[in-house]
Amino acid sequence: MKPRLLFWSIVGGLSGGVVLSLVGLLLYTSITTNNSRTLDGTISSADTATDQLSIDLSNLKDISDTTNLIDQSLELMQFFETATFDQILELLNQTVALPSNFDTWYIQELLVEQLASMDPQATLDAVQSMRSSRHLNLIFILYSEWASQDPIEAMKSATQQTKHIQLVVIRAIVSTLSLPLSSDILDLADSLDINGLMDEVLAEIAVKQLLQSSPHAAFQSIFSDNVNDIRQESLLSEVIGKWVLDDDDEALTLLLNSFRDEYAKLGLFDFQADRLFLNLLNQIVQKDPYEFWKLNLNNPSDLQDSVNIEILSDWVNVDPRAAMEAISEIKGSEMYKESHRTVWRTWAEVEPTEVLQSIQQAPQDLRETVIAYAVRSLVRTERVEQALSSIVQMKELGENIGRGVRLLTNTWIEYDVTATTDWLLATDSINDTLRKDVLQEVLPALSHTDPLRAYQLAVEYGEPEEYDPRLTLENRVIESVAERGDFERAIELLQEVDESLMLTARSTIGLALVSFGKIDEAIELGAELVGSDQPQYFQNLAIQWFYLRPDELFENLAKLPTVESQQAIAATLLDERLGYRVKMSQDEIAVLENLVSDNKLQ
C-alpha cells in the first residue's frame, strides 16, 4: 500500500495541483516513519456506533483550507493503526452524506484503499451501494489494491462485473502489476475469456509509455492497435494535449498532417469516429486557431477544404471577429466563399442578438440563412420572445424570413408545441402558403399532446396528395400517434377520417400494431374494412410484417378474414422482384405457393 500512496501523491501533482500532491506526500511520509502498523484482515463485530469512534468525519464539510485536510488525513492514518474493518466502514458511510467535492473524494479514496487492504470482497459489497458518480473511481482504487495483494482473485472477481465496468477493473489490475505480465496471468485471462480486455488495456499502457518519448508515434499507435473507439478519444486527447505544448512549427505541422492522415481513413458513415476526430480537432484549434488555420492552408491535402471548415467553426466559437478578419486574407480564392458562409452561419449561432442587429452587413445571399440560424439559437437558449420579435423585425426590414420561421418552429415544438401552433395560426408575419408548409412539420408533433386538434387542423390546412395518400398531412398525424403506441387515440381518430382515406389510415395503424407485436389487433382492424378493401389492407402490411415478425406472419395467416387477403400477402412475398424467397424456408414457400395456385383460386 505504501508505494501506491506515493504513486497517488505523484498523480496528485499532475492532475490535482499542489493540494493533492502535498496531502499525498505528507501521508506517505507519515506511513514510512511508522512501521509498527499491522492489519489482521478480518471483519470485526465490534460496535461501530459513530459516537464510539475515536474519529468523526461529520466535520469534513467545514474544512476550508489545505492544512485542515492534511490534518484530517493524518488523523485518519493514525486511526487505521488500530481500527477494525467495521469502524473504517462506518467512516465511509459518513462520507456519503457529505458535500460532493475534492475533500470528500480524497478521504473516500483513502478509506476504500484501506478497507480493500483488509477485505477486498467486503469492500466491493460496500462500494457497490454507493452513488454511481463515485462508483467507477472507487472501484478502480479497490481493484488496484486487491491486485497488489492477490491478482488471481482480483481477476476472477472482475469477471463478475458488468461489461462496462469490466474494462475499468481490468485497467486497475493491469496498471498495478509488473510488465510484461507473467504467463500465469495471461493464461488466467485466457481461461476467464477476458484476454481481449487485457490486450486493450496493455495497448493503452503502451500508448501512455510511448507518449513520454514521441507523441507522434503514440498518435499513430492508437489506430494500429485494438484500443476501443471511446477510449481512443481520451488517449488521443492526452497525446494532443502534450503535442500542442511544443511551440516548434515543424512539430505542429506534423500534428496537423497526422490528424488529417487518420481523418482521411474514415468511412463515409463512421459517425462515431467522425465525432471523435472533430472533438480532437477542436482541442487542437483551441491552442492557436490562426496558426492551425494557416498551417492547413499552407499544407495542401484532399481534406484541406473540410478541415478548413471545421477549424473555422471552432474558431468562431472562440473569437468570431478574428475568424472573419482572417478569411479576408483569402478573398478571391476557391475556399473563400464557403469559409465566409461558415463564419457567418456559426457566428449567428454563437452571438445571435449581435448578428441580427447587424444583419445588413451580411452578404445578401447569406442573410436568409444567417437569420434562420440566429433565430434558432435564440429559441434553443430559451429566448423565444426575442426570437419572435426578431422575425417581425426582419420582415419589416424586407428580409426573407421563410427559413427562419421553419427553424424557429421546428426548434420551438421541442419545448412547447401548443404555443408554437397557436403562434403559427395567429401571426400575420407570414403568408398562408408558408403557414401551410410549416404546419406539415408542426402538426405531427402536436398530435403527441392533442391528436384531435392536430387532425382537425391537418384537414383544414393539408393539401390533397395526388400520388400517395400515405403522404397526406392527415395520415401523417395518424401515423405519429400510432407509432408512439397510442392505439386507442389513433383508432378514435378514424371517426374523423374521410371514407376516401379510410383504407390508408387503417393500414397506417395496422403497420404500427404489427411493429408492436399486436397481431390480433392488426387483423381485427383490417377485418372491419369492407370486403373489397381487405386484400389491399393486408398487402400493405405484408412486407413489414414479414420483415419484423416472419414467424408470426405464417402462424397467423389462417386468421385473416378472407382467402383473398391471404392470397394478397402470398402474392406480395412471392414476387421475384422483391427477393423475399431467399429469406424463407421451402415449407414456407410451399404454403404461399399453394395459396396462389390455380386450384386454390377455383
Explain what you see:
- It is a single chain.
- The protein is globular.
- The chain has 35 helices and no strands.
- The protein has 602 residues and is mainly α.
- Helix 27 (473-483) packs antiparallel against helix 28 (487-493), helix 29 packs antiparallel against helix 30 and helix 33 (563-574) packs across helix 34 (586-596).
- The chain is 70% helix and 0% strand.
What is the helical fraction, as a range of percent? over 70%
Radius of gyration: 33 Å
Tell me the total number of β-strands.
0
Strand content: under 5%
Largest sheet: none
Please sum up the structure shown.
The chain has 602 residues and is mainly alpha-helical. The protein has helices at residues 2-15, 18-32, 66-80, 85-95, 102-118, 120-128, 132-149, 151-158, 163-176, 183-191, 195-213, 215-222, 229-243, 249-263, 271-287, 289-298, 304-318, 320-327, 336-350, 352-357, 367-380, 384-396, 402-412, 417-426, 432-446, 451-461, 473-483, 487-493, 502-515, 519-527, 534-548, 550-556, 563-574, 586-596, 598-601.
List keywords for this structure.
disordered N terminus; globular; 602 residues; 0% strand; mainly alpha
Note the topology.
Blueprint: H1 2-15, H2 18-32, H3 66-80, H4 85-95, H5 102-118, H6 120-128, H7 132-149, H8 151-158, H9 163-176, H10 183-191, H11 195-213, H12 215-222, H13 229-243, H14 249-263, H15 271-287, H16 289-298, H17 304-318, H18 320-327, H19 336-350, H20 352-357, H21 367-380, H22 384-396, H23 402-412, H24 417-426, H25 432-446, H26 451-461, H27 473-483, H28 487-493, H29 502-515, H30 519-527, H31 534-548, H32 550-556, H33 563-574, H34 586-596, H35 598-601
Helix pairs in contact: 1-2, 2-3, 3-5, 4-5, 5-6, 5-7, 6-7, 7-8, 7-9, 8-9, 9-11, 11-12, 11-13, 12-13, 13-15, 15-16, 15-17, 16-17, 17-18, 17-19, 18-19, 19-21, 21-22, 21-23, 22-23, 23-25, 24-25, 25-26, 25-27, 26-27, 27-28, 27-29, 29-30, 29-31, 31-32, 31-33, 33-34
